[in-house]
Every structure is written in structure tokens, then in C-alpha cells.
Predict the structure.
Amino acid sequence: MAEIRILHLEDDPDWIFFVQERLKDDHRYRLTAVSGVNEAHALLETTFFHILIIDVILNPALPDDESGMDFVRKIMQTYAQVTEIIFLSNYAKYMRDAFREFRAADYIDKIRFEEDFKDALDRVAFDTSRPDMKLAINGRLRIRFQRGLSDLRGMITGLKYHGKRLHSDDPMVGNLTDELEDLLRRVFKDNETTILLESVGKGGFSGAGIVRCRPFSQVGGMNIEQQMVIMKFGDAETIRQEKGNHSKYVAPYQVATYATHIYRDAFSAHLGVLLYSFVGMNTRAFDDFDTFYTKPDTTSEQINRVLTTLFRERLGTWYAIAVLSTPEDLESEYRASLNIDSRLAEIKTHLQPYLNDGVLRLGTLPPLPNPLHRLERYEARVEAVYRSITHGDLNERNILIDPDTLRPWLIDFATTREDTPLLQDFAELEMAIRIELLREDDIPLHDRYRMEEMLTMKHQRFESLINALPDRLPWDAHPQLQKAYQAAHTLRSLAFDTLRRNQDATLYEYFVALYYYSINSLRFTTFSPLQRQHAMLSSALLAQALDQF
């Protein structure tokens, strides 16, 4: 049974003792007592509490003291929806006022402590019939881990919280671990007895976590596996944004028989959780795009089928309402959306060892231009482009695939937006396939260079490049390199089709997107040295190609 954590704020040491004595043998509760507001604030920063027991007047010597109520006012914005408040005081009038103002769970007169306290506390903690109960948690739920996960603390480490990655020694990690456990017990609160959590990965730009959840329920004395779901968890603000984006941009454009639904959601003081379910998917056996793509027996024909369905059926409902924008500075838009300027120092650190007199030198490859020179000498250029709703984080972790039907589903809508360049999603996924998923160390850099040269051939028009590209690399290339090239070819053909086969469409827009995504990837810590060099040569060739426009 999960413990209910209680913070008791009380200035009188006798009353701290009375409450401790009353709860010392009840192992359902874990009590922490403090006498000052500053101590309470500090504890709330590092520990998640289910119930706050507060004296409304913490300094009776001061006339009209309302320090307990002032404390509650300050924390209400963060904790009002997730933490129960019980007022315990000798001042009945103040308690009644506080009860109404803060919609507290209960108030107890100290005169009736012996008669009322324990019953009131049990009712607040465990009475599921109570309206607006905030503690409807599954205390019996067992949480198990496999496939890359070992504990909840490990799931919290590496998340983005308030824009920064959490390290294992961060004091917030312990608090957020408790909150995550509490959220799991809230969203799996029906008949579930066990959940098995499996790693899917950390989200991209949002920095949230994604896990596969396999719930089990007790039926006739047996644990029966229920429908698998995907759980997205992270900073509460990010998760609320994603929930809102799903409601605004995803739900209205879905086909009922082929849809991604938010099955449940819950929020604590600092974290949020979304459970995604998928209509029409074999949820016991789906893969993310990374796993599907990198399987040795996955063919280019299967990848082509997945990409075609993804962009024509799933994303196509957004692209169908695209409009041609008034001319805008496209490069500045990508530079800002990917935070390139704030990341430039980090990018330069990785690039510097390969620069000599301003020239990029990678082994025996021909000298290449410094890919950052374009950023330094860039002059604004306005361009009219098609704009629509786009996913905004279309990487290999945010596409799920039913291996039986090869139908794709999307997750992670934290950065989904409207009025964004239509080709953004195509370019982001192409760069992920060409570099992030090309992990084999036995593909020589020279062969990677040859592929990149073909994909950045000097053509002004989109149509002329599509017509010039062969279906396959014209040499005995490594199978994974061949797979990457053919996937890129498919994506470009789909992008051209999405532009309604506009024969005047230039490659400028697409190459700009590819260039900024390749520059951004230079900072990725997951890259091997070979992948990073691949990203360098790709960004250098793209910068060179953009100079022709």
C-alpha cells in the first residue's frame, strides 16, 4: 500500500506532538512537521505531499495574524489541484473563512481533536465517494520495469524541468520521483493491480519521457493483461501544452477508425502525465520508427509504404489546408525555432577540431566550406512558402508503427503548431534517417559523402532534382546506406507531391530546412564521431548548395 505523505505546519510544539502521537502507529501515513513558513516552502520544493495540515494562525501574539492563510494563498496556484488541505486550529471563525476561500477538504477545531481528527483525515485520504477528491490513487498498484528501465528515479533523470535537463544529483529528482509514482497510481486507478513499464525514449524538443505501459488486472484470481498504452510524462506546463495541442490540432483532423486518443491525464504540482491509446493498432506489438527502420529485415519497400501512409493519410489532413504565405524571412524563422544562436557555442565546440584556416577538413574528403559561415554572413531574404499545421518534432521516437499492417501513429504534440512551413516535417525526418539512424561504423565517410553529394545536386527546381535522382545509389553501397538514400528519395517525392506538383517550386525552402536541422544536430551527444562528421559534411554541402539560390 502506498503511503500518504502529510506536511503539518504548526507553531505550537505541543500540537506537533499530539498529531505525531495520533499517527505514529498508522503506517498508511508518513508525517513531516515544521513550525515555520520558510521551512514549509523549502520542503514543498523537494518533497511531494498529498495532504497539508495547517494552523491558520501561526503567531497568536500578533493581532490579526493570518500567516497560515497567507502561506496557503502563495502555494495555491501550484498545489490547489493536487494537494488536499485540512485546517487545524482553535480559531473557528478564521477556519471557516479559510475553508470557503481555499475550498479546503476539511477543518477541525482543536477542541474536538480527539473526536474528529482521525476520522476526518481518513475521509480526506480514502473516501473515493467524496466530490472533487484529489487523492483517488491506487494504493495496491505494483510498478514493474523492463527493457531499459530499472526504477522511477531513472525515468526522471534526464527529463527537462523548467527548460533544463535533470541530473541524478539534482535535489528535485527525489521530489519528482514521488510525484511520478503518485501520478501512476492516479491514472491506473481502476482495476489495475500491476503495470509493466518499458522504455520507448525521451521526447525530442519537449524533453519529456515516453514509456510503454502494460497494465494487468485481477480477473477470477488471475492477472490478465489489458490494452497497452503509451505514457508521456514531463514538466506539467509542457504536458498541458501537449494536451491543448492535441485537442486543437489533432482530434479535429482524425479519422475515427484510425486515431490517437488521450485516454487519461493527471497532473501533480510539477509533473503531468498523458496516456495515449490508438484506435486500430495492435497495441501488444507496436514498434517506434527507430526500431522498425533499423531491423535488418525491414525493406525499403516497407519503409516507403510507412512514409507514404504517414504523410498522405496522417499528416496529409493538415497539409490539405496549407496556404501560400506572404513573403517572410524563412532562415531567420528556422534559426529562431531551433534556438541556433543560443546553441552556437556548443556547436562550434564540436566543429572546431575539424576546421583549418576556415576550411572543414574531414580525413581524405575534399576540403569543404565551414558550414557556419552561412550563419555569420547571412542576409535576410524573404520567400513565399506554403504553411500549415505541422507536427514540429517529427523524429524517429514520435512515430509508432503496427508491424502487422505497417500503419503509423503519431505521439508527442508539445510543439505542434499552425502557420509553420509545410516542408518542416519532411526535412526533420529526412535528416534523422540520413544521420541519426545511420549508426553503422562500417559505412565509410567517403560513401556517406557520395550520398550527400547526390542529395544536394545543384538544381534550382524541386521537380528537376526529383527527376535527376536515381532510384538507388549507383554503386555497391552498404545496405543501410542504400536504405537511407531510398527513404530520403521517397520523402522528397512525397514533399513535391504535397506541394501539389508545383513545377515552379524551388529547392531553396527544402534545403534551408535541411541545413538548419543538420546544423542543430551537430550538438547531439548521442552521435558517434562518424555520425558527427557526417552531419558536418552534410551541413557544409547544404550551405554550399544554398549559395546558388
